[in-house]
Amino acid sequence: MSKWVVLDIEGTLSATDQVLVVLYDYARPRLGPWIEQHGDDPVVADAVQQIKELAGHDDVVKALHDWMDADQKVTPLKTLQGLIWQQGYAQGDLVAEFFPDVVPALRKWHDDGVKLAIFSSGSVAGQIAFFKHTTDGDLTPLLEHHFDTVNAGPKREAASYHKIAEVLGSDDITFYSDVPAELHAAQEAGWKTVGVARAGEPYGNADFTPHPTVWELS
């Protein structure tokens, strides 16, 4: 086993529907009110400005909804979603659920001295809230680092994995993901890679060649 294991979330640790249905449905009606109520927050103001620039118009909520409909991993959208989800988890409106094999695997790796990190398109704030409020309790003590498209970069580019390796201070890293393109990028950066083929998930029947493939974590 590598010194570090870095894990994707959606489709790897947790069902895609939990993000695309449960979390998206929770965030969608709250985006407009959140922007209105937190417009003075520098993080929110910066996200709004980015949205206007990327969308090419000033209808921020429409742009956000359009991106959500297309499941586009747009950074300012992820930022706002993460803030809303963070509050939702804190209030008890949301509880994260994992595939049955995930929590036992995370705990075993941690007990065996493997360092664990997350690399997800969801914001770091959203990730921390996700792992803090789960059906298995607070799992954040198991994790050393969180990476997203803001502090690391796009998940399908090797440069992002080089950047993460610099932060971790190691080249002995294994990346688990259900998306072949992400695995290709990690492999290009010199990481070990493992494809996670979950039955019923969008990439469950994908071609993971040349990456070793598992159907559950162990």
**Major β-sheet profile:** 6 strands, parallel
Low-confidence stretches: none
What is the tally of beta strands?
Answer: 6
Structural class: alpha/beta
Instruction: Name the beta content range.
Output: 5-15%
- The helix count comes to 9
Question: If you had to describe this structure to a student in words, what would you say it looks like?
Answer:
This protein is an alpha/beta fold. Helix content is 45%, strand content 11%. The protein is built from 9 helices and 6 strands, in the order E-H-H-H-H-H-H-E-H-E-H-E-H-E-E. A 6-stranded parallel beta sheet has the order 3-2-1-4-5-6, with helices on both faces. Strand 2, helix 7 (124-132) and strand 3 (145-147) form a beta-alpha-beta unit. The radius of gyration is 17 Å and the shape is globular. GO terms for molecular function: acireductone synthase activity. It catalyses: 5-methylsulfanyl-2,3-dioxopentyl phosphate + H2O = 1,2-dihydroxy-5-(methylsulfanyl)pent-1-en-3-one + phosphate. Monomer. Belongs to the HAD-like hydrolase superfamily. MasA/MtnC family. Its EC number is 3.1.3.77.
Could you give the topology of this structure?
Layout: E1 4-7, H1 16-27, H2 31-37, H3 42-55, H4 60-69, H5 75-91, H6 102-111, E2 115-119, H7 124-132, E3 145-147, H8 158-168, E4 173-177, H9 180-188, E5 192-196, E6 213-214
Parallel strand pairs: 1-2, 1-4, 2-3, 4-5, 5-6
Helix pairs in contact: 1-5, 3-5, 5-7, 8-9
